[in-house]
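step: validate -> pass
step: tokenize input -> pass
step: predict -> running
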Amino acid sequence: MAYWRLHYHVVWGTKGRLPSVRLEDVAEVIAVIKAAFPDKGVIVHAVGVMPDHVHVAASVPPALALAEVIGRWKGATSHLLNQRRSSVEADRFAWQADYGVLSFDDKALTDVIAYVQNQTERHQDRTLWNGLERAD
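step: predict -> pass
step: emit ->
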């Protein structure tokens, strides 16, 4: 396919919305999401990781099913986080089954990227865009 412009904002939470993503895990979670589709044309514009949820702004080519892309992101990151947990921790890390996804146009791309990149500040200041926070 020669030309496509399909942009998405995706958000998903931890199981029970518990603050299960540790600060020391954030960089690797971002790296895993960015590396999940090296040869499929997925463009990850921004990833915002909070203790209880993740935001991704990405462009996904029409040849890929969006649900499969999100499933791989969630699966790869939960695998990573479970590997980093000690064997004495009672519960395995898990994401909630649901996720939220919105599509947007080229004009909104810069704003959505900034929103995702500034998750910590937005949550501290409570300047959230409600539509981009819904994961269920």
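step: describe -> Helices lie at 26-35, 66-84, 106-117, 119-125, 130-133.
step: cleanup -> pass
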